[in-house]
Amino acid sequence: MGYGEKHGRMFRACWKGPTNRLERMPGFLTKKAAAQYANDQEAAIRAGRYVDPRAGQITLIDWVNIWYPAQDLELTTLETYRSLLENIVLGEFGERTLASLTAEEIAAWEKNLVRNGRCSARTAKDARSVLGTVLAAAVPARIQVNPAQRKRATGKKATRRVQRVMQARKAWATPLEALLVAERVAALSGQESDFIEVLFIAYTGARWSEAVGLEPSCVHSDVIDLDWKLYELNGHFYRGHPKDGSIRAIDTPPFLTGLLARLPTRSCSCSPETEDPYCSGGTYVFLTPGGGHARRSDFARRYFRPASDGWYAARGGKDARPAAPVLVDVSASWPGKAINPPWPAGADSYPRGRGIPGLPAEAALWNWRPIMKDLTPHGLRHSHETWMAEDRIADVLRDERMGHIGDGSMRSHYTHVTDQMRGELVESLQKRWEQSLADRVALEQHSALPSSVPLLNELLEPFRSGVVASIGSARPRRALQSVRRERGRLSARL
Fold first, then answer.
1. Are residues 389 and 292 in the same domain?
2. 226 and 142 in one domain?
3. Tens-digit pLDDT profile for residues 36-90
4. pTM for the complete prediction?
5. In this structure, is residue 84 part of a structural domain?
6. pLDDT digits (tens, 9 = 90+) for 98-121
7. Which region, left, alpha or beta, applies to residue 167 given φ > 0 means left and ψ of -120 to 50 means alpha?
8. Same domain, yes or no, for 45 and 72?
9. What are the start-end ranges of the E strands in 282-403?
10. Of the candidates 107, 138, 168, which is a domain's last residue?
């Protein structure tokens, strides 16, 4: 039976450990509290949940140095863990012992990170999650519970409700909106390949890394093999299999096969001397004009977000500038030719064809209105999943196409993908594409201007001349609203 004994000015608990060795823990104010702790330890030994108090005396930084090298994860995941631990977590708790950490102080630390402006709420949440992952590996060998673990259904009820609503509102696009974003992206970059890449993601549900890592050898007449990905890490791109090993074959509609066939086979500019697992050269479908791999953040900042939002985001650092609307010349085509550098916001300061070197006198200057605010390339993946749900595509085929393979569900075990399912999916995607072109022609009739993207002009020509048969009058309600809304944007000149 455990007991308490005098130890200096305080008391210490004494009990027999699992090896029948006498264990002691000092620091109790009363003999009764020490005895209670000692009895709890012996009860934990009998229940098989005993943790040696000395095991938790290791500092967090020493434990991280034991835990981190043992992790077998994606390089990008490891880099994210390392960055959060070094820059945020260890500076606060690195010298503390595992046993001394409490749930209350960790929760307060997360709030203060945001309150003091050290990082965003998302980064603070990620930092606590990484700390929780590190401490979870110490349970039960070194500590009994994980103090960084979040308790379910805690915090403000209103906050949790808002988070659920915002998650449900995550941006996704209709086929027409995806086409309009792709058109604007190509108008900004001047690259036909960027137009095709945006549509590729929208109509396959591929991840950004899978699109960047697509090789010509994986593109076939009616199927695309998503076998590889390219992730950006430390200024380089490393090559590996898709997330969670989700290698898969994607059935492609005829229009997408034709678009991909237009792209030339090119080799990337990566150095052959680059060590594995980083890219050391090869042929890829989507490359920048200089032969490099597009960086997600750079592509989003320069092209995708201005195309979807109608605004360039604010920029910090030595090239700092405030957020600015995209200003275009629509005298000859729509959505127009972008005027660079971006003109500052404020209607009174917008030039009307004057004061900009090289701008013709007949220039018609407009500001782009948003197509869909907060849309991202990953939002196109959400869009693709939503389109398949609307078209009643079988769940097992949707899971396969999105790379959600082998989830262990009964459905995935007993249901199999058939050729009929694949045929229905390809047909529905082809119809959505053709309908989006027909809707785009309807917008063009309103503006009386051809597209600024030569490839899209070519694709629209059959629909302008009425060569393509009617696709059907039954359109989803949101698609009709998108056409009407975009017509209103065209007429709202600034």
1. yes
2. no
3. 988 988 888 888 777 777 778 899 999 999 999 999 888 888 989 999 999 999 9
4. 0.77
5. yes
6. 988 989 999 999 999 999 989 999
7. alpha
8. no
9. 283-284, 311-312, 324-325, 327-329, 337-338, 365-367
10. 168
